[in-house]
């Protein structure tokens, strides 16, 4: 049985005060509620350390939204994996479609980042997904296959022991238009099959694959009860404690 994992990607929202308020509200909303769902929050860099302090003694894990693949040096404006570890991060989102499209990150760059994360014991949340044009052009599976094979090139099953994959169709992100549970399930099953071909069926069976793209309390349960959907990577709806916690509870 795979554990359901719900992560909240705060993106470029919440300054320090707003971050502390949100994480404190999430803790309050969760108190007294039993959940066997693994929870991850992904605040912006500037809030990681403070959110980490609020999270002490809870089961909630901390993730960063990005990192650079070099360990240190003259890379103005970048953040390294050891910096993230030093402020309490256990996970890091890599290959988010906003990084791919707005910041031109290629599969090769993402591959280097995954390698660095793994080397430094940060667990990657590896995002993949097709654009609307690609879906309408009938090449969704081709695009996903390329993102997965190039993104994970040179990495072994052992390297990827703690990998989380996240299928986020670009056309469903921030648009209010989620993939239907059937559309999402179809791609999740494809990803699992592909991972099974690239690695082993045992590894593929254990891989958590989250869905992301306009997940809300109103659609989360139906999405997460699909056989190959193991949780959610939530954007907009994670910025309010009550809706994020509703999504978490719907995953049980
Ligand atoms: P939305 O939930 O706002 O569509 O964002 C999804 C996402 O990109 C999470 O990483």
Describe the structure in your own words.
The protein has helices spanning 16-30, 48-55, 81-86, 97-102, 107-119, 132-136, 140-151, 181-198, 201-206, 220-224, 241-250; strands at residues 5-9, 38-42, 61-64, 91-94, 123-128, 164-167, 208-212, 231-234. It has 252 residues and is an alpha/beta fold. It has one domain (5-250): Aldolase class I (TIM Barrel, Alpha-Beta Barrel). An eight-stranded parallel barrel has the order 1-2-3-4-5-6-7-8, surrounded by five helices. Helix 3 (81-86) links the parallel strand 3 and strand 4. Helix 1 runs parallel beside helix 2 and helix 7 packs across helix 8. The chain is globular and about 45 Å long. The model has no long low-confidence stretch (mean pLDDT 97). The protein binds 1,3-dihydroxyacetonephosphate. Residues 9, 96, 168, 173-174, 212-215, 233-237 line the site of 1,3-dihydroxyacetonephosphate.
What labels describe this entry?
single chain, alpha/beta, 8-stranded parallel beta barrel, binds 1,3-dihydroxyacetonephosphate, TIM Barrel, 252 residues
Please provide a brief summary of the model:
With 252 residues, the chain is of the alpha/beta class. The protein is built from eleven helices and eight strands. The protein has a single domain, classed as TIM Barrel (Alpha-Beta Barrel), CATH 3.20.20.70.
């Amino acid at each position: 049985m795979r554990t359901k994992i719900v992560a909240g990607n705060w993106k470029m929202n919440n300054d320090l005060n707003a971050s502390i308020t949100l994480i404190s509200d999430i803790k309050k909303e969760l108190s007294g509620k039993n959940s066997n769902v693994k929870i991850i929050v992904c605040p912006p860099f500037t809030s990681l350390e403070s959110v980490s302090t609020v999270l002490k003694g809870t089961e909630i894990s901390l993730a960063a939204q990005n990192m650079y693949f070099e360990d240190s040096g003259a890379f103005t404006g970048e953040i390294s994996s050891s910096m993230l570890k030093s402020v309490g991060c256990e996970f890091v989102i890599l290959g988010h479609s906003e990084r791919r499209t707005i910041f031109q990150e290629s599969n090769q760059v993402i591959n280097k980042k995954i390698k660095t994360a793994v080397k430094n014991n940060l667990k990657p949340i590896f995002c993949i997904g097709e654009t609307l044009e690609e879906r309408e052009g009938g090449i969704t599976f081709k695009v996903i296959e390329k993102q997965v094979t190039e993104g994970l090139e040179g990495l072994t099953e052992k390297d990827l022991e703690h990998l989380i994959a996240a299928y986020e169709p670009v056309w469903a992100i921030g648009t209010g238009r989620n993939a239907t549970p059937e559309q999402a399930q179809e791609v999740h099953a494809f990803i699992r099959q592909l991972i099974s071909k690239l690695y082993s069926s045992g590894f593929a069976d254990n891989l958590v694959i989250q869905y992301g793209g306009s997940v809300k309390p109103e659609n989360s349960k139906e999405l997460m009860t699909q056989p190959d959907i193991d949780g959610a990577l939530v954007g907009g709806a994670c910025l309010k404690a009550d809706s994020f916690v509703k999504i978490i509870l719907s995953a049980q």
